[in-house]
Write the structure tokens for this entry.
Amino acid sequence: MATKQFKMTAAGKAELEKELDFLKTEGRIDIAEKLKVARSYGDLSENSEYDEAKSEQAKIEARISELEYQLDNAVIIEEASSDTVSMGSKVTVVRKNDKVEATYEIVGFAQSNPAQGKISDESPVGKALMGAKVGQTVVVEAPIGSLELKIKKID
């Protein structure tokens, strides 16, 4: 089976490394303390605090494994010139139908966080924007229908 590669910028990789370091140190120390306190309450078979702490521990360990896998298979994408949209670009677009402006940073899948304006190069909007230039209009096929986005600025 082929290993999945995770495209990301150098800054994105640094963010993931910082999160991994935090989870391996402070995250594990915090959960160990919670488990210690929960054990002190007695009978573990009816101890909801212990069950909750074990569940949180499992989530932390799963996230650590996920981050290690992504970092082991990371491919750093160099940011290209600012005349075309590429990985690492910050793109300001205007929707043609309602003139709403939005700014997106094009990142790898592992870094994407739409709430922070970071969209994957594999997402419908990311795919449509890749390689486009200022002034160009791209069409995005979305679940709500076709969206026309005019590129206003690339940083």
